[in-house]
Amino acid sequence: MLGNSKARNLGKLIATPFAKIFIKLGFTPDSITLLGTFGVVVVSVIFLAQGQFLIGSVLFMLFVGLDAVDGTVARLLNRNSKWGAFFDSVLDRIADGAVLGSLAFYFASENNVTYFVLSLISLVASEIVSYTKARAEGLGLNCDTGLAERPERVIVVVAGTFLAGIGINWMLLASIWVLAAISVITVIQRMFFVLKQTKIL
Description:
Blueprint: H1 6-24, H2 29-46, H3 53-64, H4 66-76, H5 82-109, H6 113-138, H7 150-165, H8 169-197
Helix pairs in contact: 1-4, 2-3, 2-4, 2-5, 3-7, 5-6, 6-8, 7-8
């Protein structure tokens, strides 16, 4: 998982200069989270849902990058809080739903039933991936496992839409298959991981 790898540390390193700029401009961690989510939703509806994948993927990548910036701002300002973590998680779910819902809309408008269904599977499974961890931790259990956390899923979406935007259309279709598969696999992995901790197995 990228979430527990050097890739995430690299992301924080890259985010730090941008975080300092936002701090100078007077942004709070919550306002950055809200800006990033609003941007993702608007980009998804206006561009991705309409099949404008090149500009959509670039703008999506910029706005979703604020997800790393808000946490860095909170750390630099020593404003890490339970509310901030909760707010960030809730808005992440909204952003994910907007992106995958917009892709589902695009495939529906193209009368592509297979990829419409796969997009819906990806949407539901992605939300469940996050829910399984939240619910397990709420029960005092560990759920830090799985093939694909949010960073991996974002990379798949960005890669697929960007490559489709430059004319490699089959990469979008491949990315939807990959996204659906890794999301479902992650849900299953987390369920079995929690099941083992309850000592039923």
